[in-house]
Amino acid sequence: MTTIEYSYETCLDGSVNHAWTVDDCFQGRDFDFTKPFLPDRIAGVDGIDCLTAFEKRQLNQIRGNSYCHIFAFVEEYIVPMVVDHARGDVYGDETRLWSLLRFAEEEVKHQEMLRRACSQFEAGFGTSCGLIPGREAVAGVVLGTSPLTALLLTSMIEWFTQLHYVEHVRDRAELDELFRDILRFHWIDESRHARMDSLLIEEVARDLGPAEREAAVDGLLELGTAVDGLLAQQGELDIDALQLATGRTFTEAERDEIRTHQQRAYRWTFLVSGLEHPNFIRIVDELTPSGAAKLAQAATTLSA
Ligand SMILES: [Fe+2]
Ligand SMILES: [Fe+2]
Prior knowledge:
Number of helices: 13
Bound molecules: fe (ii) ion
Largest sheet: none
């Protein structure tokens, strides 16, 4: 069983005491397009030999835009999922109910923040950048899996969101300040959400047998494969966007080189950094005997 060291009460206190609005994050600012937006661990542009330093920065910024879009995209299902868990015991523990409603509300706020980031980007970057469609269909797929699978995906996302900010963005003064703040404000809420995910996982897993838990981990890895497909689609749109921004037409060899670097970076960002997160591994390890080994295998395959 999941080790419980969190409570709805402390999460609710944190939510109330650290509440922020989208305007608090933006403070009327725009992006500074003379700066990179993402650390190279996420953007994966530094090693691409066919691009100039200027073009690498353009691709870094394109990746900043798609980072915001993909977060909004993959978090879309969290609002209805959390509302369903809140409604499951609507006349029960009021602290649980209130903290879950705030969790859902915060995710709606994140959607607003990330969409505003994408529209300011679109206005300021100069050329149009394609973004993958179909967020509602993807949300439907996630919500169509088992409740434990959807919660495990949420937990993984909320842990890697924090890791991206704390380990790769927080101390990086060379990155655009507004972009860093978007990740900082997101982190403020996600650090609580990850704890509430653990509480919900505990509640749901309590009634499940070993086979059902194991199946939930398998379901998570199937969702990971679907996410990988979406990342590949976005990667192609990014290369098209870079062509438009630079006025170049890449040869097949250049396109291949960019694609290889970008695939590795996308996979690390949205899959491997979650599959390898120690807190997430611990959660899965406490649920199932072989889940952690499956995560490690998937991470190795995606890093190859
Ligand atoms: Fe979020
Ligand atoms: Fe969240």
